[in-house]
Amino acid sequence: MIATAWRVLGVGFSLLVVLTAGLLAGAEPGRSSFLNSSIDGLTLGFAVRTDDLTVLLLAVVGVVATCVQVYSLGYLHERPASYHALVALFTAAMVTVVVADSLFLLLIGWEVMGACSYLLIGHYWERRDARSGAVKAFLMTRLGDVGFLFGIFVLGVGAGTFRISELDPAELSSGVLTTGTLLLLVGVVGKSAQVPLQTWLPDAMPGPSPVSALIHAATMVAAGVFLIARLYDLFAASATTLTVLAIVASVTMLFAALCAMAAVEVKRVLAWSTVSQLAIMFAGLSLGTSDGRHAALFHLVTHAAFKGLLFLCAGVLLHQIGSAAFVVLRRYTRRGRLRKALPVTFATMTVGLAALAGVPGFAGFFSKDTVVEAAWHHAQDGSGLGWVVLVSVCLTAALTAFYCLRLWLWVFFRTPALAGGIGAFEDDDPMADLDEPDTSKLRDAPWVMLSPLVLLAIASVVLGYADGVHLNWVVGLVTTVLVLLGALPAYSLWSRGADPRPVVLEREFGVDPLYHRLFAVPARWLARLTVAGDRDVIGAYVRATGRTGTLVSQGFRRMQTGNVQTYLTAAVVGVVAIAVLAGVIGS
Amino acid sequence: MPLILPLLLAVLLFCIGVYGVLARRNAITLLMSFELMLNAVNLNLVAFDAWRLDGLATGQTLAVFVITLAAAEIGLGLAIVLLLFRGHGHVDADAARDLVEQDATEQRKGAAT
Amino acid sequence: MTTALFCVAGAVAVVASVIVVTSRRIVHAALWLVVALGAVAGCFGALHAEFVALVQILVYVGAIVVLVLFALMLTKAPTNPLPTLTSGRSPFAAAIAAALALLLGTGVVLAFGNEKVDPVPDGSAEAVGTAVFKTWVLPFEVLSVLLLAALIGAIALSQRKKED
Q1: Which domain holds residue B31?
Q2: Residues 13-52, chain B: which have Cβ within 8 Å of C?
Q3: What range defines the domain where residue C152 resides?
Q4: Which pLDDT score, from 0 to 100, does residue B111 have?
């Protein structure tokens, strides 16, 4: 009963968000502040605003959240319904971030999102990897949030207001501006899983797939992009911050794309691709031009559609087969069953991957091209930053095409190579079950799960044309060639039945072990030191107190002979001693 | 007569009584030693009464009272000694150690039951 | 005269009480107690406290010692010498008693070394009787209640239970 209520509430709330977005679309931008209190000339309070950016994000969040909630009805119907409540809270937090006009209100939503992501990633609390992934996500984003909090203080105190709409870069000294935006950038990097805080996102994959879809498409990681877009004037006014952002974005997109090329689990590939695609958005934002901002937001919207779609598809694989690891999926694929048993999933996933890879005609193609075009224009203006962004986005486009095609081919198609390419993935796992699984019962997911897929698949195509088609033929041609350049090696490797995975990529450049050695190990040593100090120094005093008491009382026990005459003797001795003492003192 | 004579006698009697109380085993001899100590006190009272001469005969009256108390005490004491004899079969003050601290394990056992 | 009498009675009392606490025969100790208490009664007499001396003889010698002898009989006290009547702690106890005696004696000598007693020549029984029934009548009555309580207590303690 309560479970049903939560489910209805969850779906209803996300529909309400969509409705609000629809109602606000085209309306005049509005602002309103409340609960203001003035302290020493500084106004603290809450404020909300509605403008184009808000409406856009509300629509994205609402649609994706609705899809996720409906999908979850089928995906998680056996789990506690508090899941739906948490997803609703998560959505509400993102909505708070989106409508906030006060840095503090934004911070509240930002932090609630962090807490919700922790709870939702750890939804399968009985699994060890889910728990540790949740903790990791929480710690990493918290680390960024410290910088975020101080960034708010620096900006707010520097400008004398915490209203976002009243922050004017012209009134701020360049030092405050740079410090504040750099600190905010730390929070953004943490939330959006950019280098060097990127490791939590792939490790958040043990969470339920719909949650991954929500985190990766609409909330959480998108909040970072949204924040920079919201404070774009400030960021654009600080050249230093933009340079840092561009470098971070360029490094991240290549890094993540390379990691995705070697991942052997569908969700992990998608997680790395999210990091990479977010970096493309940041690259667009780092140009500091309105074209760049527009391109980044366009990419954010299309990415929300196709990445949500892809994660929901991965969820279907997990739900129907029980695993999204390549080695498991291949057992079905070698029989040619997977495609036929899951036709809708296959079709929608194909659309999603095509959009991700940037195949012409799909949404990802158009949005990525706008980023490339904006970078091209910027570079032509004589900006070195524009060249860096341009080259790295182009390279990433090729790499993205490679891993998308690799994923698509290996999961859904038998390789024409000898013995069906056994050994491409099974090498890692000598114990892999090579027996043919019972595929007769494999069915596509129920329609409550498939309908969001279809909706998002349509969106993944249509959204590309929503902004009006203004295709730059040169750029389009170049990116198409790059996609082909990336796709060809993937195809030839697949047809030869080989999947070479360089060790350095498989280990994801050794960042996790490095962090482990740099932070976790010293922290553990410190903890051991603390424990030792507590146990051997402080505890020693405590134990010594107890033992002394015990020893003394054992001595007293000896005196407790039960013989009345002994007691009397002691009493008389005491009296004599006291009398002598009194005499000595008195004389 | 010097006052010091009865006082010293009282001290001697009292200390002999103390020795008896501390050294003797038999409970009845303990009681006898108590009587010696009480007598020493009485001697003190009477001696000081003779020295002070307050007209109220306070010391002598108190001495009589103490003798009365001694009678009450010896009555109760002997009753207790008889009880001891009935319970233990002896009147050895050394051997009556029911108040002794028991072993820790026994104590825990006792607490458990 | 009284000093000489007192000295003799005191010496007897000391010797008798030493025997009381050192004798190896319990019954002998009880009988020596009679001597000691009688000698103390003599001391009272020498101090011109005849009434107290008489009460001493009546109550102590007449009642208490008899009671003690009864108790010895009831507890089947052996009449032969008992080497274990004095415990192994006796040297220690003697040392303590000696120390106490030294302490008290020093104190007494220091405090009253030069005082003289000038006993009233005539008997004091009347004075004691007057004091008891005038000044001390309330304590006297309380004491009688105490005696009654002791009596009842002794009966209650020594009564055999029915099931015994």
Answers
A1: 4-112
A2: 13-20, 22-26, 28-29, 31-33, 35-36, 39, 42-43, 46-47, 49-51
A3: 124-164
A4: 55
